Protein backbone atom coordinates (compact mmCIF):
# COMPACT_ATOMS: atom_id res chain seq x y z
CA UNK A 1 0.00 0.00 0.00
CA UNK A 2 2.79 2.44 0.95
CA UNK A 3 4.63 1.72 -2.31
CA UNK A 4 1.52 2.39 -4.42
CA UNK A 5 0.73 5.56 -2.47
CA UNK A 6 4.29 6.86 -2.87
CA UNK A 7 4.13 6.15 -6.60
CA UNK A 8 0.89 8.13 -6.95
CA UNK A 9 2.11 11.04 -4.84
CA UNK A 10 5.23 11.32 -6.98
CA UNK A 11 3.06 11.58 -10.09
CA UNK A 12 0.76 14.18 -8.53
CA UNK A 13 3.51 16.41 -7.20
CA UNK A 14 5.27 16.51 -10.56
CA UNK A 15 2.43 18.66 -11.87
CA UNK A 16 2.45 22.31 -10.82
CA UNK A 17 -1.29 22.59 -11.49
CA UNK A 18 -2.01 19.64 -9.20
CA UNK A 19 0.20 21.15 -6.50
CA UNK A 20 -1.80 24.40 -6.66
CA UNK A 21 -5.17 22.62 -6.61
CA UNK A 22 -4.15 20.40 -3.69
CA UNK A 23 -2.88 23.46 -1.81
CA UNK A 24 -6.14 25.32 -2.46
CA UNK A 25 -8.26 22.35 -1.38
CA UNK A 26 -6.40 22.26 1.95
CA UNK A 27 -6.29 26.02 2.49
CA UNK A 28 -9.91 26.87 1.67
CA UNK A 29 -11.35 25.27 4.84
CA UNK A 30 -9.36 27.84 6.83
CA UNK A 31 -11.81 30.44 5.53
CA UNK A 32 -14.12 29.08 8.22
CA UNK A 33 -11.81 30.93 10.61
CA UNK A 34 -12.63 34.14 8.74
CA UNK A 35 -16.31 33.26 9.01
CA UNK A 36 -15.94 32.85 12.77
CA UNK A 37 -14.45 36.33 13.07
CA UNK A 38 -17.00 37.88 10.70
CA UNK A 39 -18.23 41.24 12.01
CA UNK A 40 -20.52 43.90 10.54
CA UNK A 41 -20.97 47.26 12.19
CA UNK A 42 -24.42 48.68 11.46
CA UNK A 43 -23.84 52.47 11.48
CA UNK A 44 -22.41 52.31 14.99
CA UNK A 45 -25.73 51.13 16.42
CA UNK A 46 -24.72 47.50 16.95
CA UNK A 47 -22.21 44.95 15.70
CA UNK A 48 -23.23 41.69 14.07
CA UNK A 49 -20.68 38.98 15.02
CA UNK A 50 -21.25 35.31 14.21
CA UNK A 51 -18.81 34.13 16.85
CA UNK A 52 -20.83 35.79 19.59
CA UNK A 53 -24.19 34.43 18.42
CA UNK A 54 -23.59 30.88 19.65
CA UNK A 55 -23.33 29.29 16.20
CA UNK A 56 -19.84 28.03 17.08
CA UNK A 57 -20.89 26.36 20.31
CA UNK A 58 -20.30 22.66 20.85
CA UNK A 59 -21.76 20.37 19.64
CA UNK A 60 -23.40 22.21 16.72
CA UNK A 61 -20.04 23.43 15.40
CA UNK A 62 -19.16 19.89 14.21
CA UNK A 63 -22.21 20.01 11.96
CA UNK A 64 -21.54 23.56 10.75
CA UNK A 65 -17.86 23.24 9.83
CA UNK A 66 -18.11 19.85 8.13
CA UNK A 67 -21.04 21.06 6.02
CA UNK A 68 -19.23 24.17 4.80
CA UNK A 69 -15.88 22.41 4.35
CA UNK A 70 -17.50 19.74 2.17
CA UNK A 71 -18.49 22.45 -0.32
CA UNK A 72 -14.80 22.87 -1.21
CA UNK A 73 -14.36 19.27 -2.38
CA UNK A 74 -14.57 20.19 -6.07
CA UNK A 75 -11.01 21.50 -6.11
CA UNK A 76 -9.55 18.12 -5.24
CA UNK A 77 -12.13 16.49 -7.54
CA UNK A 78 -10.29 18.24 -10.39
CA UNK A 79 -7.07 16.62 -9.17
CA UNK A 80 -8.73 13.17 -9.09
CA UNK A 81 -10.04 13.33 -12.65
CA UNK A 82 -6.76 14.82 -13.90
CA UNK A 83 -4.93 11.84 -12.37
CA UNK A 84 -6.65 9.62 -14.92
CA UNK A 85 -6.78 12.14 -17.78
CA UNK A 86 -3.03 12.69 -17.58
CA UNK A 87 -2.39 8.93 -17.51
CA UNK A 88 -4.14 8.57 -20.86
CA UNK A 89 -2.89 11.78 -22.49
CA UNK A 90 0.75 11.21 -21.40
CA UNK A 91 0.52 7.44 -22.01
CA UNK A 92 1.98 6.78 -18.58
CA UNK A 93 -0.75 4.25 -17.83
CA UNK A 94 0.51 1.88 -20.51
CA UNK A 95 4.11 2.45 -19.43
CA UNK A 96 3.24 1.66 -15.79
CA UNK A 97 1.69 -1.63 -16.87
CA UNK A 98 4.70 -2.47 -19.01
CA UNK A 99 6.97 -1.74 -16.03
CA UNK A 100 5.16 -4.38 -13.98
CA UNK A 101 2.29 -2.53 -12.28
CA UNK A 102 -0.89 -4.61 -12.47
CA UNK A 103 -4.23 -3.04 -13.39
CA UNK A 104 -5.49 -3.80 -9.89
CA UNK A 105 -2.50 -2.01 -8.36
CA UNK A 106 -3.02 0.93 -10.71
CA UNK A 107 -6.60 1.48 -9.49
CA UNK A 108 -5.58 0.88 -5.88
CA UNK A 109 -2.84 3.51 -6.15
CA UNK A 110 -5.49 6.06 -7.17
CA UNK A 111 -7.82 4.97 -4.38
CA UNK A 112 -5.05 5.11 -1.78
CA UNK A 113 -4.29 8.67 -2.88
CA UNK A 114 -7.98 9.54 -2.49
CA UNK A 115 -8.08 8.08 1.03
CA UNK A 116 -4.78 9.79 1.96
CA UNK A 117 -5.88 13.28 0.93
CA UNK A 118 -9.33 12.74 2.45
CA UNK A 119 -7.67 11.82 5.75
CA UNK A 120 -5.51 14.95 5.70
CA UNK A 121 -8.51 17.13 4.90
CA UNK A 122 -10.52 15.46 7.68
CA UNK A 123 -7.70 15.99 10.19
CA UNK A 124 -7.51 19.67 9.24
CA UNK A 125 -11.26 20.12 9.74
CA UNK A 126 -11.14 18.23 13.05
CA UNK A 127 -8.38 20.46 14.45
CA UNK A 128 -9.95 23.61 12.99
CA UNK A 129 -13.36 22.82 14.50
CA UNK A 130 -11.81 22.00 17.84
CA UNK A 131 -9.84 25.26 17.88
CA UNK A 132 -12.81 27.47 16.92
CA UNK A 133 -15.12 25.65 19.33
CA UNK A 134 -12.73 25.90 22.28
CA UNK A 135 -12.34 29.62 21.60
CA UNK A 136 -16.01 30.54 21.12
CA UNK A 137 -18.07 27.83 22.81
CA UNK A 138 -19.56 28.45 26.22
CA UNK A 139 -19.36 24.70 26.93
CA UNK A 140 -16.10 23.10 28.02
CA UNK A 141 -17.22 19.68 29.27
CA UNK A 142 -15.51 16.82 27.40
CA UNK A 143 -18.81 15.04 26.85
CA UNK A 144 -20.35 18.08 25.18
CA UNK A 145 -17.19 18.99 23.21
CA UNK A 146 -17.02 15.62 21.44
CA UNK A 147 -20.77 15.06 21.18
CA UNK A 148 -21.77 14.81 17.51
CA UNK A 149 -18.13 14.51 16.42
CA UNK A 150 -19.42 11.70 14.21
CA UNK A 151 -19.89 14.47 11.64
CA UNK A 152 -16.11 14.22 11.18
CA UNK A 153 -16.46 10.56 10.20
CA UNK A 154 -19.33 11.47 7.87
CA UNK A 155 -17.13 14.16 6.30
CA UNK A 156 -14.35 11.64 5.62
CA UNK A 157 -16.74 9.06 4.14
CA UNK A 158 -18.37 11.77 2.02
CA UNK A 159 -15.02 12.85 0.56
CA UNK A 160 -13.90 9.29 -0.21
CA UNK A 161 -17.26 8.47 -1.81
CA UNK A 162 -17.36 11.62 -3.95
CA UNK A 163 -13.76 11.28 -5.13
CA UNK A 164 -14.35 7.59 -5.95
CA UNK A 165 -17.27 8.68 -8.13
CA UNK A 166 -14.93 11.16 -9.86
CA UNK A 167 -12.41 8.35 -10.36
CA UNK A 168 -15.04 6.17 -12.03
CA UNK A 169 -16.18 8.95 -14.39
CA UNK A 170 -12.55 9.71 -15.27
CA UNK A 171 -11.93 6.04 -16.08
CA UNK A 172 -15.13 5.86 -18.08
CA UNK A 173 -14.55 9.00 -20.17
CA UNK A 174 -10.72 9.33 -20.10
CA UNK A 175 -11.01 13.13 -20.12
CA UNK A 176 -11.04 15.43 -17.10
CA UNK A 177 -13.50 17.99 -18.47
CA UNK A 178 -16.01 15.33 -19.55
CA UNK A 179 -15.76 13.58 -16.18
CA UNK A 180 -16.55 16.78 -14.29
CA UNK A 181 -19.41 17.56 -16.67
CA UNK A 182 -20.87 14.11 -16.00
CA UNK A 183 -21.18 15.01 -12.31
CA UNK A 184 -23.66 17.68 -13.35
CA UNK A 185 -25.38 15.22 -15.72
CA UNK A 186 -25.73 12.71 -12.88
CA UNK A 187 -27.21 15.43 -10.66
CA UNK A 188 -29.85 16.20 -13.32
CA UNK A 189 -30.58 12.50 -13.88
CA UNK A 190 -31.11 11.95 -10.15
CA UNK A 191 -33.63 14.79 -9.93
CA UNK A 192 -35.45 13.68 -13.07
CA UNK A 193 -35.66 10.16 -11.62
CA UNK A 194 -36.94 11.60 -8.35
CA UNK A 195 -39.63 13.55 -10.23
CA UNK A 196 -40.74 10.48 -12.18
CA UNK A 197 -40.94 8.33 -9.04
CA UNK A 198 -42.90 11.03 -7.21
CA UNK A 199 -45.26 11.32 -10.20
CA UNK A 200 -45.84 7.56 -10.33
CA UNK A 201 -46.20 7.05 -6.57
CA UNK A 202 -45.96 9.73 -3.88
CA UNK A 203 -43.44 12.27 -2.53
CA UNK A 204 -42.56 10.37 0.64
CA UNK A 205 -41.72 7.17 -1.26
CA UNK A 206 -39.74 9.14 -3.87
CA UNK A 207 -37.65 10.79 -1.13
CA UNK A 208 -36.82 7.41 0.39
CA UNK A 209 -35.67 6.10 -2.99
CA UNK A 210 -33.76 9.31 -3.73
CA UNK A 211 -31.68 8.84 -0.58
CA UNK A 212 -30.11 5.78 -2.23
CA UNK A 213 -28.90 7.75 -5.26
CA UNK A 214 -25.11 8.38 -5.32
CA UNK A 215 -24.99 12.18 -5.04
CA UNK A 216 -28.03 12.46 -2.81
CA UNK A 217 -26.77 9.77 -0.41
CA UNK A 218 -23.48 11.67 -0.08
CA UNK A 219 -25.33 14.91 0.58
CA UNK A 220 -27.55 13.22 3.20
CA UNK A 221 -24.50 12.31 5.28
CA UNK A 222 -24.27 15.96 6.36
CA UNK A 223 -27.59 17.77 6.00
CA UNK A 224 -27.75 21.56 5.80
CA UNK A 225 -27.36 23.18 9.25
CA UNK A 226 -29.30 26.40 8.60
CA UNK A 227 -32.62 25.03 9.78
CA UNK A 228 -30.93 23.73 12.90
CA UNK A 229 -29.37 27.13 13.60
CA UNK A 230 -32.81 28.71 13.27
CA UNK A 231 -34.20 26.14 15.73
CA UNK A 232 -31.68 27.24 18.37
CA UNK A 233 -32.98 30.80 18.10
CA UNK A 234 -36.67 29.86 17.90
CA UNK A 235 -37.04 26.66 19.98
CA UNK A 236 -40.82 27.04 20.10
CA UNK A 237 -41.09 26.65 16.30
CA UNK A 238 -41.59 22.89 16.33
CA UNK A 239 -42.46 22.86 12.62
CA UNK A 240 -38.78 23.59 11.84
CA UNK A 241 -37.62 20.33 13.47
CA UNK A 242 -35.89 17.86 11.14
CA UNK A 243 -33.55 14.88 11.34
CA UNK A 244 -30.00 16.23 10.91
CA UNK A 245 -28.14 13.39 12.66
CA UNK A 246 -25.57 11.11 11.03
CA UNK A 247 -27.07 7.60 10.70
CA UNK A 248 -25.13 4.36 10.28
CA UNK A 249 -27.26 3.27 7.32
CA UNK A 250 -26.44 6.52 5.48
CA UNK A 251 -22.72 5.88 6.03
CA UNK A 252 -23.19 2.29 4.82
CA UNK A 253 -24.92 3.43 1.62
CA UNK A 254 -22.05 5.76 0.71
CA UNK A 255 -19.45 3.09 1.55
CA UNK A 256 -21.30 0.69 -0.74
CA UNK A 257 -21.29 3.25 -3.56
CA UNK A 258 -17.56 3.80 -2.95
CA UNK A 259 -16.88 0.08 -3.37
CA UNK A 260 -19.04 -0.02 -6.52
CA UNK A 261 -17.23 2.95 -8.12
CA UNK A 262 -13.76 1.58 -7.38
CA UNK A 263 -14.75 -1.91 -8.53
CA UNK A 264 -16.28 -0.59 -11.77
CA UNK A 265 -13.17 1.51 -12.39
CA UNK A 266 -11.07 -1.64 -12.12
CA UNK A 267 -13.42 -3.59 -14.40
CA UNK A 268 -13.27 -0.81 -17.02
CA UNK A 269 -9.49 -0.81 -16.98
CA UNK A 270 -9.34 -4.60 -17.05
CA UNK A 271 -11.53 -4.85 -20.17
CA UNK A 272 -10.09 -1.83 -21.95
CA UNK A 273 -7.58 -2.30 -24.75
CA UNK A 274 -4.65 -0.02 -23.93
Automatic annotation (TrEMBL):
It comes from the Bacteria. One of its GO terms (molecular function) is ABC-type transporter activity. The keyword Membrane applies. The chain crosses the membrane at residues 20-40, 60-84, 111-132, 152-173, 180-199, 251-269. One of its GO terms (cellular component) is plasma membrane. Keywords: Membrane, Transmembrane, Transmembrane helix. This is ABC transporter permease. It comes from Paucihalobacter ruber.
Amino acid sequence: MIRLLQLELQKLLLSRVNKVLIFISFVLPFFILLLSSFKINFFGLFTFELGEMGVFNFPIIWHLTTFFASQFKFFFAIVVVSMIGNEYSNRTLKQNLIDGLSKREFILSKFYAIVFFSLISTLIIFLLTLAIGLYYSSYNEIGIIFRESEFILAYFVKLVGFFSLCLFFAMLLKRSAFALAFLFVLYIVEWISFGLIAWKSDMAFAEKIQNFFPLKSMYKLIDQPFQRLAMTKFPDKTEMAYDFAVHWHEVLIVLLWTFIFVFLSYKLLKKRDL
